[in-house]
Design brief:
Layout: H1 2-26, H2 32-38, H3 54-74, H4 84-103, H5 112-135, H6 142-162, H7 170-194
Helix pairs in contact: 1-3, 1-7, 3-4, 4-5, 5-6, 5-7, 6-7
Length: 195
Protein backbone atom coordinates (compact mmCIF):
# COMPACT_ATOMS: atom_id res chain seq x y z
CA UNK A 1 0.00 0.00 0.00
CA UNK A 2 2.80 2.42 0.93
CA UNK A 3 4.45 1.73 -2.43
CA UNK A 4 1.30 2.64 -4.34
CA UNK A 5 0.79 5.82 -2.29
CA UNK A 6 4.36 6.92 -3.11
CA UNK A 7 3.69 6.09 -6.77
CA UNK A 8 0.54 8.20 -6.85
CA UNK A 9 2.40 11.11 -5.24
CA UNK A 10 5.17 10.88 -7.86
CA UNK A 11 2.59 10.91 -10.67
CA UNK A 12 0.52 13.75 -9.22
CA UNK A 13 3.61 15.86 -8.47
CA UNK A 14 4.96 15.53 -12.01
CA UNK A 15 1.58 16.14 -13.64
CA UNK A 16 0.94 19.17 -11.45
CA UNK A 17 4.30 20.60 -12.52
CA UNK A 18 3.62 20.15 -16.25
CA UNK A 19 0.05 21.46 -16.06
CA UNK A 20 1.05 24.43 -13.86
CA UNK A 21 3.81 25.38 -16.29
CA UNK A 22 1.46 25.11 -19.28
CA UNK A 23 -1.21 27.25 -17.61
CA UNK A 24 1.37 29.81 -16.47
CA UNK A 25 2.78 29.90 -20.03
CA UNK A 26 -0.70 30.39 -21.49
CA UNK A 27 -1.14 33.55 -19.40
CA UNK A 28 2.44 34.81 -19.88
CA UNK A 29 2.96 38.07 -21.78
CA UNK A 30 3.94 36.24 -24.99
CA UNK A 31 2.45 33.63 -27.25
CA UNK A 32 2.36 30.10 -25.86
CA UNK A 33 5.06 28.88 -28.26
CA UNK A 34 7.30 31.93 -27.70
CA UNK A 35 7.02 31.47 -23.95
CA UNK A 36 8.38 27.93 -24.19
CA UNK A 37 11.06 28.77 -26.76
CA UNK A 38 12.32 32.19 -25.67
CA UNK A 39 11.45 32.48 -21.95
CA UNK A 40 12.99 30.46 -19.14
CA UNK A 41 10.93 28.47 -16.71
CA UNK A 42 12.10 30.83 -13.96
CA UNK A 43 10.60 33.77 -15.88
CA UNK A 44 7.18 32.22 -15.32
CA UNK A 45 7.75 32.47 -11.56
CA UNK A 46 8.75 36.14 -11.40
CA UNK A 47 6.00 38.26 -9.81
CA UNK A 48 5.40 40.94 -12.46
CA UNK A 49 2.93 41.86 -15.18
CA UNK A 50 4.54 39.43 -17.65
CA UNK A 51 3.58 36.45 -15.50
CA UNK A 52 0.26 37.01 -13.73
CA UNK A 53 0.20 33.37 -12.57
CA UNK A 54 3.71 33.45 -11.09
CA UNK A 55 2.36 31.92 -7.87
CA UNK A 56 1.16 28.85 -9.78
CA UNK A 57 4.59 28.21 -11.30
CA UNK A 58 6.30 28.73 -7.95
CA UNK A 59 3.87 26.33 -6.28
CA UNK A 60 4.86 23.73 -8.91
CA UNK A 61 8.55 24.17 -8.07
CA UNK A 62 7.88 23.72 -4.37
CA UNK A 63 5.54 20.76 -4.90
CA UNK A 64 7.97 18.83 -7.11
CA UNK A 65 10.66 19.35 -4.46
CA UNK A 66 8.36 17.99 -1.75
CA UNK A 67 7.34 15.13 -4.04
CA UNK A 68 10.98 14.04 -4.40
CA UNK A 69 11.61 14.21 -0.67
CA UNK A 70 8.49 12.25 0.22
CA UNK A 71 8.69 9.72 -2.61
CA UNK A 72 12.40 8.99 -2.33
CA UNK A 73 12.55 8.84 1.46
CA UNK A 74 9.24 7.12 2.14
CA UNK A 75 9.46 4.22 -0.28
CA UNK A 76 11.75 4.53 -3.30
CA UNK A 77 14.83 4.29 -1.06
CA UNK A 78 13.95 0.64 -0.54
CA UNK A 79 14.90 -0.05 -4.16
CA UNK A 80 18.35 1.53 -3.79
CA UNK A 81 20.84 -1.20 -2.90
CA UNK A 82 24.12 0.70 -3.39
CA UNK A 83 25.28 4.27 -2.74
CA UNK A 84 22.31 4.90 -0.45
CA UNK A 85 23.92 7.78 1.46
CA UNK A 86 24.86 9.55 -1.79
CA UNK A 87 21.32 8.92 -3.04
CA UNK A 88 19.95 10.64 0.08
CA UNK A 89 22.35 13.56 -0.33
CA UNK A 90 21.45 14.17 -3.97
CA UNK A 91 17.74 13.80 -3.22
CA UNK A 92 18.09 16.61 -0.66
CA UNK A 93 20.29 18.75 -2.92
CA UNK A 94 17.78 18.44 -5.77
CA UNK A 95 14.71 18.93 -3.61
CA UNK A 96 16.02 21.92 -1.68
CA UNK A 97 17.31 23.42 -4.92
CA UNK A 98 13.95 23.34 -6.65
CA UNK A 99 12.19 24.61 -3.50
CA UNK A 100 14.67 27.53 -3.38
CA UNK A 101 13.77 28.31 -7.01
CA UNK A 102 10.11 28.45 -5.99
CA UNK A 103 10.72 30.64 -2.95
CA UNK A 104 13.42 33.01 -4.27
CA UNK A 105 12.56 34.47 -7.65
CA UNK A 106 14.91 35.27 -10.49
CA UNK A 107 15.17 38.75 -11.97
CA UNK A 108 16.01 40.48 -8.67
CA UNK A 109 19.70 41.53 -8.48
CA UNK A 110 19.65 41.16 -4.68
CA UNK A 111 18.46 37.56 -4.71
CA UNK A 112 19.34 36.25 -8.19
CA UNK A 113 22.48 34.54 -6.87
CA UNK A 114 20.40 32.41 -4.50
CA UNK A 115 17.91 31.65 -7.25
CA UNK A 116 20.72 30.58 -9.59
CA UNK A 117 22.25 28.41 -6.87
CA UNK A 118 18.87 26.73 -6.37
CA UNK A 119 18.52 26.16 -10.11
CA UNK A 120 21.96 24.55 -10.37
CA UNK A 121 21.22 22.37 -7.33
CA UNK A 122 17.92 21.30 -8.90
CA UNK A 123 19.04 20.74 -12.49
CA UNK A 124 22.59 19.46 -12.08
CA UNK A 125 21.79 17.67 -8.83
CA UNK A 126 18.61 16.18 -10.29
CA UNK A 127 20.28 14.71 -13.34
CA UNK A 128 23.16 13.33 -11.29
CA UNK A 129 20.48 11.80 -9.04
CA UNK A 130 18.96 10.04 -12.04
CA UNK A 131 22.28 8.57 -13.18
CA UNK A 132 23.06 7.55 -9.61
CA UNK A 133 19.63 5.96 -9.17
CA UNK A 134 19.98 3.89 -12.33
CA UNK A 135 23.37 2.58 -11.23
CA UNK A 136 22.39 1.95 -7.59
CA UNK A 137 19.54 -0.52 -8.05
CA UNK A 138 19.93 -4.30 -7.99
CA UNK A 139 18.67 -4.80 -11.51
CA UNK A 140 19.45 -2.97 -14.74
CA UNK A 141 16.27 -3.53 -16.68
CA UNK A 142 14.07 -1.20 -18.74
CA UNK A 143 13.21 1.21 -15.91
CA UNK A 144 16.87 1.61 -14.91
CA UNK A 145 17.97 2.05 -18.54
CA UNK A 146 15.35 4.75 -19.13
CA UNK A 147 16.40 6.47 -15.89
CA UNK A 148 20.05 6.44 -17.01
CA UNK A 149 19.20 7.80 -20.46
CA UNK A 150 17.10 10.60 -18.94
CA UNK A 151 19.95 11.54 -16.60
CA UNK A 152 22.54 11.57 -19.39
CA UNK A 153 20.28 13.63 -21.68
CA UNK A 154 19.60 16.07 -18.83
CA UNK A 155 23.30 16.41 -18.00
CA UNK A 156 24.22 16.96 -21.65
CA UNK A 157 21.50 19.61 -22.06
CA UNK A 158 22.61 21.31 -18.82
CA UNK A 159 26.25 21.59 -19.93
CA UNK A 160 25.31 22.84 -23.40
CA UNK A 161 23.02 25.40 -21.77
CA UNK A 162 25.69 26.39 -19.23
CA UNK A 163 28.12 27.35 -22.00
CA UNK A 164 25.43 29.06 -24.10
CA UNK A 165 23.60 31.19 -21.56
CA UNK A 166 23.41 34.10 -24.00
CA UNK A 167 21.89 31.99 -26.77
CA UNK A 168 18.36 33.00 -27.74
CA UNK A 169 17.30 29.35 -27.52
CA UNK A 170 18.76 28.83 -24.05
CA UNK A 171 15.25 28.32 -22.56
CA UNK A 172 14.80 25.27 -24.80
CA UNK A 173 18.04 23.80 -23.44
CA UNK A 174 16.88 24.63 -19.92
CA UNK A 175 13.68 22.68 -20.42
CA UNK A 176 15.60 19.76 -21.95
CA UNK A 177 17.68 19.68 -18.75
CA UNK A 178 14.69 20.03 -16.40
CA UNK A 179 12.11 17.74 -18.00
CA UNK A 180 14.12 14.51 -17.53
CA UNK A 181 13.55 14.78 -13.77
CA UNK A 182 9.85 15.51 -14.23
CA UNK A 183 9.45 12.62 -16.67
CA UNK A 184 11.39 10.36 -14.30
CA UNK A 185 9.01 11.28 -11.47
CA UNK A 186 6.05 10.26 -13.61
CA UNK A 187 7.68 7.00 -14.74
CA UNK A 188 8.73 6.22 -11.17
CA UNK A 189 5.13 6.65 -10.06
CA UNK A 190 4.02 4.11 -12.65
CA UNK A 191 6.92 1.81 -11.70
CA UNK A 192 5.93 1.88 -8.02
CA UNK A 193 2.23 1.33 -8.69
CA UNK A 194 2.89 -1.66 -10.96
CA UNK A 195 5.16 -3.45 -8.48
Amino acid sequence: MKTKVAGIIFILGSLYYLVAEAISAAFFNASFADTYIFNTISALGIPNSDSPLFWLMNSAFILIGLTLIFGNFSKFKDFISKNRLVFYIFTLITSFGVIIVGLIHGGNPLTSGYHTLGAVMAILGGNILLVLTALSMDEFKTYQKITLILGVVGLAAFWIMFFNLGNVYMPVLERLSVYPLILWSFLTGIYLIKI
